[in-house]
Each structure stands twice: as C-alpha cells, then as structure tokens.
Amino acid sequence: EGRLRPSEAHAELRIPRAKYDAAGVVAHIADSAHVDHLLDNEEPPFIHYSLLKKSLAKYRTLRADSSIIKLPLFPKGKITKPGDEYMGLGKLRALLTALGDLPLANYAPNKDTTVLLGDVLEGVRHFQKRTGLESDGNIGPMTISALRKPFDSRLRTIELSLERWRWLPRNYSNPPILVNLPAFKLFAYSGNSDDERDVLAMDVAIGGSFDKKTPIFSDTLRTIVFSPYWDVPISISTAEIIPKARKDIKYLDKNDYEIVKGDGDLSPVLPNEGKSLDMVLKGTARIRQKPGSKNSLGGVKFLFPNSYNIYFHDTPSRSAFSKARRDVSHGCIRLSEPGQLAALLLGDQEKWTRAAIDSSMSLEAPMRVAVKKPRPVFILYSTAMAAQDGKTYFYPDIYGYDLELVAKLEKSYPYAH
User: Fold this and answer.
1) CA-based angle 225:230:232, to the nearest 5?
2) Are 229 and 291 in contact (CB under 8 A)?
3) Rounded CA separation 232/253 (Å)
4) pTM of the shown model
5) What is the rounded average pLDDT of the residues 310-330?
6) Which of 252, 279, 317, 395 has its CA 20 to 30 A from that of 291?
7) How many CB atoms lie within 10 A of CB 162?
C-alpha cells in the first residue's frame, strides 16, 4: 500500500484503503514454498507497476557496470549540434546503447566516429524524448546534465514512482482517468486494466511551476459542458483583464468578455463600462468570456467539482503541445484531444456520435451533459514511467515534489507526523 498514505503527501489526494489482513498474509506465506509468487500477488496488480520494477532491476545493473565511462567534457559554453564534431562519440554511443536508446531500427551505425550524425544523433533524440527534453538532437547543458545523471538518482526516481503506484486503488467503481503532471499526459481507461491498448492517452498542458501549480488530488468527473463560458478568476480579472479594459474599454468586446451579476449561466449582463469594472473589483460582479473561437476554454470543459476549481478543457492555443515541457496554464489542465475524451465518456449514449460532439463544441450557448458512468479522476505526480514497449521515461521534478517525498520517507516509520 506504500509507506505513506496519499493524503500524507498531498492533503486532497484522498484514496480510501481496503482493510488488509497483514497477519493472515504473513501466515499464508510462512506455510508456502512459493514465497516470491505470493509476495508478487500482494503488490499492486498494474502492468506498469510490474514494468517499473523490471526497470529498477535494470538500473541497478547499470549502476554496477564499471564499463559505462563518464563522457568526455563538451566544449564549454557551446552547444554540440547535429553535424558538429565531438571526439567522445564512441563513449556517447556506448552510454546510449547501455541505456537502451541504441541501436535503432532504420539507422545504420555512423562510420564517422567523430561527427554527431546518423544513429548516434537519433539515439540522442530518442534519449531526449525519453527524459522529457526537446528532442532536437542538440547537446546543450540540459541534455548533458541528463546524460550524466547518476544512476543512484535514476534509481531513487523509480523507487519514488513505485511508492506512488502503491497508493492507487486496486479496483475502481468505473474506469478511471489519470493525469501524470510531470509527463504532461492524461490516461483515460476503457476498463480496469492499465494495458496501453485499452487506454486513451493524450498530451496535456498544466499549471506553471512557479506560482500556478496544478494541485495533486482526486475527485469524480460527472459533467461535460460543451461551448462553455469561461468564468474568469478574480486574480486574472484583477491582474490582466481590468488594467487593459481601463486603458481601452473596447478590449472587452474585442475579446468576447462580458460582465455579469450573479453566479449562473443566465445571470444578467451589465454594460461594459467603468462602473461595472468597479463592481468586479468589489466582488459584486464577475467577468466571463462568451463561447466562440476566442474562448480560452475552447469548445468543451470537463467538470469534477473540487476545492481548487480545477477542470479539463479544450484550448484555442495549440502551440504548447509542440513542446516537451508544457507547464504554461494558470492551473487547469488543457487537453490536446478533448473531442476524443468526450467520445469515450459519452460512448454509452447513442446520440453522442463524434459528429454530434464536434457540432456541440461550436454552439452559441453552453450545453451541459451528464456522464452516465461518473469517472474517478486522479491528478498524480510521477517522474518515472515504464511503457509496454520496454522504454523507461524520466521527467523533470517540475514542482519539487520528489524532494518533498524523499524528506517525508526519510523520517522513517511511521513516516507521517
């Protein structure tokens, strides 16, 4: 079950635990000749947990391999780019081979052992993608740091991720939706299994790492809103929208903002004028953005009510999805393929064809749709993941939560105080 309770690491990550008969399990194991098998049965029954355990064994072997020599120094202050000469290419090839980034199909070994081209270049790109970096083939400070990452550090990352896997329920009332923040990925299950063939995976953009972090928590997704209003948080109204509107009141109309009094979608609309802006600052009115092409939530949002007011949503701004690192939002989670998630959630309602979903994302007024089978949602944090293709992915500790978890675990039993 893990050494910590999930809520001891993140207060709103409330995952109930089934009563566990530890004494009975130990007694059963003591009377058996198949201890390893019985212990395996007690661990989380997830494919990706098992894969990560295998990765742990692999990295322990790599740590003990003295033949993996540190790379020679790269030219100080210079980025080694594709086509540049690098005298340590042989050692780089050996390291990439040991890590599993070489050999690659369709890329024959580069005969010129001093120029960053061919299979070694593609191996670098493969390594960069696997470690959460821009896969451009340029060997700069971040790539060098990742290549030189001590195996002890990688092992610790895997161990922390295994701990987090143990927190999850062994069974779900309905297929869950998981978001792994450091990976910038959402995983929507079709059933209880985490087999990748039965999981919808998509890129996401999340809250900025400085002061707009997306929180770690769990809740239940019950409602989809097509063509939603965007109710602008007061912090954004105060810091961004109102100052621009003070300079030019037409800014509101140009960007489809309106000022309303009240909480519901049918709240009366006030004139876009200075007095209305004053009401927003006093808390007696609010700014919202009308449905349409300029709406910051795009054509759909997915609600799982929580104390943070976090939700999934579409976005008209797509540029972030071309980047490796996507901590760019104010906290909510932007989806790269919102229509696919809507289709999955509404797949048991015959009228909700993909054409119906697409047309509902461009209405003039919001439309709320109940999900017949509410989905458990888990916003999680794991900086190592093992995939069924045999690759192990590592991601930057963007919010510093690995360091926090290490500190909690180092307190030793009973861990939480």
Assistant:
1) 145
2) yes
3) 15
4) 0.92
5) 94
6) 279
7) 19
Helix, strand, or coil here: 39? helix
C-alpha R_g of the chain? 25
Binned at pLDDT 50, 70 and 90, residue 125 comes out as very high
* Rounded Cα distance, 119 and 66, in Å: 24
Is residue 12 scored above 70 in pLDDT?
A: yes
The sign of the dihedral angle between the CA atoms of 13, 380, 388, 34 is negative
Q: How far apart are CA 376 and CA 350, in angstroms?
A: 22
Region of poorest pLDDT, from 105-114, 204-213, 320-329: 105-114
Contacts 24+ apart (CB under 8 A), 168-173: 168/15, 168/44, 168/46, 168/378, 169/15, 169/16, 169/376, 170/18, 170/44, 170/45, 172/376, 173/376
Of the candidates 412, 369, 381, 406, the residue with the CA atom closest to the CA atom of residue 185: 381
Rounded Cα distance between 210 and 288, Å, is: 26
Please provide residue 60's backbone torsions phi and psi, each rounded to the nearest 5 degrees.
-65, -40
Cα(349)–Cα(398) distance, integer angstroms: 39
- Closest alpha carbon to 387 in 50, 132, 41: 50
CA distance 323 to 224: 27
- Nearest CA among 223, 288, 299, 222 for reference residue 252: 288
- Distance, CA of 200 to CA of 205 (rounded, Å): 16
Mean pLDDT of the chain: 93
DSSP, residue by residue, 380-413: E--SEEE-TTS-EEE---TTSHHHHHHHHHTT-T
Residue whose tokens read 């360091």: 403
Distant-in-sequence, close-in-space partners of 199: CB < 8 Å, separation ≥ 6: 187, 188, 189, 190
Alpha carbons within 13 angstroms on the beta-carbon side of residue 390 total: 5
